[in-house]
Each structure stands twice: as structure tokens, then as C-alpha cells.
Amino acid sequence: MKIFLRILVVLLIVSSCRKEADIDVPNGDPQLVVTNFITVNTDTSFVRVLWSEPIYNNAGFNQYNNNYKHVENADVNIINNGKKHKLIYDKLGVYYTADVDFNIGDKVELSVNYDEKNKLTALCKIPVEPKYKIEYLNTDSIYVDEWSVKIMEEFKFTALNKGSNYYALHLNVFYESNIYNYNDKDKLVDGVKSVQKSTSWFDKSYFELDENKSVILRHIKYVNANRETDLDVIYSNKEINDSIEFIALTCDVDYFKYHKSIEKYGYGGADVFTEPVIVYSNVIGGLGVFGAYNRVTQNVLIK
């Protein structure tokens, strides 16, 4: 009994020592933030320049959100092969742009100068064109419930570039759109069909691979268990399941590390119990990313 009383007294003393602290978080000065990815086979470069948000604000990770504080009067330049290209601000697109050609192996510098206090630089290098082998393996269907079926398509990707390289792998799926008569939704408009495509994702998209090393890619999707057309809509999209458009990118280390960090942020960004994710930045004097990639596409038949 005495031991119990002593423990109770100690708990009361400890609990009485608790004190709520109201600490003011200082407002740090905003920093310049840039986003730009360059590649070959294009003659135009686009650079977004923003102000950073305070640490306690929820800014998200979508750099194309036009609600952010865009910087309109900065001096933005790209230096390629010793030639400086000045970028002009486009108010409609809220980005800086200029006509610039890039080639494999180019070492490119980005500079942004707002004032004496706010200026930044970043470097990147255009990677080689991706060489690879992509093979369709199989498709599995898993019944989820009366409303949906889980479809998993598997592919084998083998890197053929020499040495070790960074890869970003995506795909487009094709849809056939039937257009219905606006006044009578039960009747199709004769002869009016269009094939569209939409970007989709594998379960994992970013890899560092040596020559002749392979990874298994899984494309997971959910389809309506009832395959009948819903006549309550004017447009009915039916997926064309006999092929996909495979998209392969070789990328520099900065493009790779940035997107890997965004991938982690996206998976756990909405969960307050996940560990914080530091988004990768290769910018000196500010925040953001300046990276490069090389892209090829290929239609892959699904047997």
C-alpha cells in the first residue's frame, strides 16, 4: 500500500510539472525555386521560377500549381556550349522560355538572378539515348468484388546501355472513344470513333541498372466487373487491351534523385504518421531541380 501511494505521489508531481509552450515560428525569408527538365529533339526550353513557402505551410509537390507565388521579373539564362540564351517570361504560361537546342553529352548551366540577395545556379548533362529490350510476360486477373476486377500486366525490361545508367519507365494505354448522339444517348453517331491515349504508371518507375540487368515491371489497373456500356454518359471509353506505348527515359542523376524523392513524398505525403521526406534539390543558392533526360517510345503487343 505504501509503495502504491509513493508511486501515486510521484505521478501527481510529474503531471503537475507539465506546461504548454506557445512558441512563435519565425518567418524565414522566401527562396527562389526553379523547375526545369531539358532533353534533345526539342527546340524550346521552359523554366518555372517560384518563391518558396514557409515550412509550416502545405505547399504540396505539384510545381505546376498556378496558385504559387511566381517570380515574373528575374533574369533567367541557359548557357549551353558557351552560348548564353536569355529566357523571356510568358505571363499566360507563367514560365520563362527560349528557343534552345540540346545534344547528347551537352553540359548545360541554368542561372536565375532576381537581385543581389536572390540568385541561383544549377548544372546538368544530357544523357545518352536509352537502349533496352522490353518483353511482355503475362496478364493476371484477380476478382476484387462484385464491382471490380484487378488486372496486373507484367513486363521484363533489360538495360542495354553500357555501364550504369538511370532509367524512368512509364507507359501510355490506348482508349477507343464512342461518341453518342447528344439528344438520344442510346444511339451511336455512325462512323465517329477516336483512339486516344493516357499516361499510366508501373508499380515502380525509377531504376539504376547496369548493362544487361533486368527488372520486372507491373502495370496494375482496376476495371469494372460489368463490361456493359453505361448509356447514361455521352462518351464511352473502352480500353484497347492489345498493346501499350512503352516510354523509356535515360536520365541524369539529378532527374533521377528528384523523382525518386517525389515518388516517396507522393506515397506518404497525405499521411501525418509517415516520416518526413526531403525533396531532392541540386540548385545552388536556392531550391528546386535542373535535370536532363533522353526519351524513346515503342509500341508493345500484349498477346
Compose a concise summary of this entry.
With 303 residues, the chain is mainly beta. Helix content is 10%, strand content 50%.
How would you describe the overall organization of this protein?
By secondary structure, this protein is mostly beta strands. It folds into two domains: 32-125, Sandwich (Immunoglobulin-like), CATH 2.60.40; 132-251. Helices cover 10% and strands 50% of the residues. Strands 1, 2, 3, 4, 5, 6, 7, 10, 11, 12, 14 and 15 form a twelve-stranded mixed sheet that branches. The longest helix has 16 residues, at 253-268.
Spans of 5+ residues with little confidence (pLDDT < 50)? 227-236
How many domains, in number, for the residues? 2
Q: How do the SSEs run, as a string of H and E?
A: HEEEEEEEEEEEEEEHE
Number of helices: 2
- Global outline: globular
